[in-house]
Recover the amino acids of this structure.
């Protein structure tokens, strides 16, 4: 494969269910970079939060680029280039919050190494534990005076179907938004122009690479577009049906070295 860049989703893909990166996958990443292949992360998490967790995951110094917030942010280490595109205005986020005011959910915005929420409850506690990111309860009236890349709804998984159904009736009179479920705990709203593919195209352009020279790994529905549009789209065996159907290859799941095995067999071989 004439691959010049590898980009991986984090949750359910690069990380095991224990929140670690397997030794085989870490070795495959390092050997890819030694061969001159760019390695990066493409995630729904904010870039600031990802940067803080790289040492904990054991890949500090091994990441060349990050696509964060589902494509709304990009950061390139080599060029020290950061940009944010199409954030949601604060008043639109408030409209989304109001749309769910009668439901037992909480709202979350990534930033500065924290999960910010307007209230304390089990939903934010569970998400913080699952994502290994601390949270802060803050005044959202003040926080929403500025725009943010996206807003997430976190809830008990048993309530997710109702959250998704409620989302179908959301409408803002002066701003478009798109929404989708990204994990069993999260349902997210963002500008409809933002996708992981959008962010990946920007990273590839910075390096003079084409999307055909990119290999991506993903699992959830929010990875569907990048798996479909990359030159080599790889879905994890634990991935959603939608993303697996879009993939060129399906590799082993995130607990059985799916990424590492694929890199060694197909890219480094």
């Amino acid at each position: 494969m004439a691959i010049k860049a590898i980009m991986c989703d984090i949750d359910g893909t690069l990380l095991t269910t224990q929140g670690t990166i397997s030794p085989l996958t870490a070795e495959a990443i390092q050997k890819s970079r030694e061969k001159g292949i760019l390695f990066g992360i493409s995630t729904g998490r904010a870039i600031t939060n990802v940067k803080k967790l790289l040492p904990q995951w054991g890949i500090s110094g091994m990441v060349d680029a990050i696509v964060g917030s589902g494509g709304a942010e990009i950061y390139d280490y080599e060029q020290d280039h950061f940009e944010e595109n199409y954030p949601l205005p604060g008043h639109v986020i408030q409209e989304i919050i109001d749309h769910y005011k009668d439901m037992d959910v909480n709202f979350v915005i990534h930033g500065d190494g924290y999960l910010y929420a307007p209230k304390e409850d089990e939903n934010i506690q569970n998400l913080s534990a699952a994502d290994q990111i601390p949270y802060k309860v803050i005044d959202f009236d003040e926080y929403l005076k500025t725009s943010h890349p996206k807003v997430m709804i976190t809830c008990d998984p048993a309530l997710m179907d109702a959250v998704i159904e409620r989302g179908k009736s959301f409408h803002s009179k002066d701003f478009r938004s798109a929404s989708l479920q990204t994990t069993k705990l999260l349902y997210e709203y963002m500008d409809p122009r933002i996708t992981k593919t959008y962010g990946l195209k920007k990273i590839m352009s910075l390096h003079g690479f084409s999307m055909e020279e990119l290999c991506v790994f993903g699992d959830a529905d929010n990875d569907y577009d990048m798996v479909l549009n990359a030159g080599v789209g790889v879905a994890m065996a634990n991935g959603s049906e939608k993303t697996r159907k879009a993939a060129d290859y399906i590799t082993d799941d995130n607990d059985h070295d799916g990424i590492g095995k694929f890199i060694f067999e197909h890219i480094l071989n």
Remarks:
- Residues 23-34 form the longest helix (12 residues).
- The longest strand covers residues 106-111.
